[in-house]
Design brief:
This protein is α/β, with parallel strands linked by helices. About 35% of the residues lie in helices and about 25% in strands.
Length: about 600
Amino acid sequence: MLDQPIARIRNLRVQFCTTGGLAGAVEDLSFDLHAGETLCIVGESGSGKSVTSLALMRLIEFSGAEITDGRILFDRKSGAEVDLARAGSDLMRQIRGNEIGMIFQEPMTALNPVFTIGRQLSEGLRHHMGLSRKEAWARAIEALRDVRLPEPERRMVQFPHQLSGGMRQRVVIAMALACAPRLLIADEPTTALDVTTQAEILALMDRLKRESGTAVMFITHDMAVVAQIADRVVVMEQGRKVEEGTVAEIFEAPQHPYTKTLLAAVPRLGDMRGKPLPERIDVAERSSHPPVPVRGTDAPLLRVQNLTTRFPIRGGFLRRIVSNVHAVEDVSFTLMRGRTLSLVGESGCGKSSVGRSILRLVDPLSGSVDLDGTDVMGLDAHNLREARRHMQMVFQDPFASLDPQMPVKDQVAEPLRNFCTHRGDALWDRVATLFDRVDLPRSFMARFPHELSGGQRQRIAIARALALNPKLIVADEAVSALDVSVQAQVLNLMLELQADLGLSYLFISHDMAVVERMSHDVGVMYLGRIVELGPRDAVFETPAHPYTKALLSAVPIADPRKRATRSPTFAPIPSPIHPVGYRPEPSRYDEVAPGHFVLHHDIPLS
């Protein structure tokens, strides 16, 4: 690490222009960035982390804000020093993407939906590095291979909407790393990624900074990731720096109360080991003890048998089906009343497709879905609509699942209106009760989604899902985009609702620590199949399948003394695309312990 910093932020102030005047987002912020160093900036939503990153790239001006004070001194590759806070637009265009790269949090908004992945990835290489079209295309394929994206040649000709969320995030990371920038700003880069891909991306960024001396400014709410990669940490609260120190100082001897609160909210793998599940939780005990799952019942609510979902790929002049994506292949499980079954696995393994197939948001190819005695697969459109009163979904991105032009009270009331369950004053009384249930003030009822934080929007999505008193809720990455303290609040809320209402959750996630805390049973998915299924303690404490062991070994630990001593190595994920007529082998399982099943036949891990 060099002594001379390559970026120096001094007394930075960023303010937003609002109808009520200027509102401060960042106040009097100062820190240095050294070559070959990873500086992590942590804090809750609204603390000013992302605003700081956008200010360094001078993108904040496109968001209705301005830098009103301070300096951002940056040493360019040529050795010249420039104050980015006052640099002209032409100079910033030369610096962005070439000398300062940025990985954005939301990949769908960072990618242009009308251009192919290849065009977007090769554009920066041609502009900044002067490569020919052919050279840029070859370098772009190599960049996708570096971030472990399967079949990079095929991905180059696809559009963003044809990729999963995790795959899109890997494309954005590849774009930021392609030109080997002098400073890399990573704004929540691994939020949408599973643990194995996250481990490889973190190792890739670590290798980049060691080999090229790149400085990394890493913005995250995942304290376990901070413990694994950070050299120094800056803690922000309400736009101000409240603490700065080495990673060891922050984790082992935090000084500020806010830092201590952040560290206390981190879910840690192994926290649930040996904890018995209670029959019920008394209301009086909830304030003094973090909620844990109640025991639930042994009565089946949802039975899924041999579920198979495939997506056709068309090609040729006549647009015939030439192959199929085997998204879900011969999946079977049973979910009991009042219990939580979690599906975990890497991006693209089929876990979200399972949830959507059960709700018939995607029509499966074959299999059976029985919800409390109702054959969901055999229902016509009218009866399926009625059945959906008993099964609801909470999506990953609450802002995308809410209508930006409707007050949130109308969105919570919409299911009640659609099924004519409440009218007049009774309807609004029910909506107010739902706001109480998810711990939101009734004064928020008239607000719009953009006036709420991410955690508050997710609570609105949960309230809407609860409106019709469903028996089953499918939570698809419902807390992955939330910072640790808000994530803890939403998880506690879901556990309390399960204890009070007897809800059953199909919980889809890539966060193993969250899954351990929420689950009664766990199913591990790989290439569309469940490779291991069993009680939570059996899967986490005595994993039997090699893939489950790989997932658990890749989970970062919120302790800088337990950093991984070597870079993880994972085999490339095989393609789930097979030609028409391909007949996969049916799933057969060995019962290695009571209720603990492991896939019998081998599936390729490479």
